[in-house]
Amino acid sequence: MEAIKAIEKLNWMKQEQINLDLWLSDLEINNKPVNGVHWRRLKKTIEVFEEDLIGEIRSLEYKIHQKLGDIEIDV
């Protein structure tokens, strides 16, 4: 049960990473400020957040691997 919850969280985190990438692309294409903040400043903030998210994803993947062994996880 714990592994299933971890895999669900992993899937959610990876989807959030995709959403961040899409949002950044949209900001760059439109080149408009968001709430008065230029997209380049937002991009840097989001990139830092995304790096943290990627670190959490890798950590979670490692923990799942430790619990389940060499089972293939398709996410």
Gyration radius, in Å: 16 Å
What is the number of E strands?
0
- Percent strand equals under 5%
Individual helix count: 2
Shape: elongated
Q: Structural class, from secondary structure content?
A: mainly alpha
Distance between the termini: 17 Å
Kindly state the mean pLDDT as a whole number? 77
Largest sheet report: none
Unreliable spans? none
What order do the helices and strands follow? HH
Helix proportion range: over 70%
Number of domains: 1
Give a concise summary.
The protein is mostly helical. The chain has helices at residues 2-30, 39-68.
Explain the overall architecture.
This protein has one domain. The chain is mainly α. The chain has helices at residues 2-30, 39-68. Helix content is 79%, strand content 0%.
Key structural traits:
0% strand, 2 helices, single chain, mainly alpha, 75 residues, elongated
What is the topological layout?
Blueprint: H1 2-30, H2 39-68
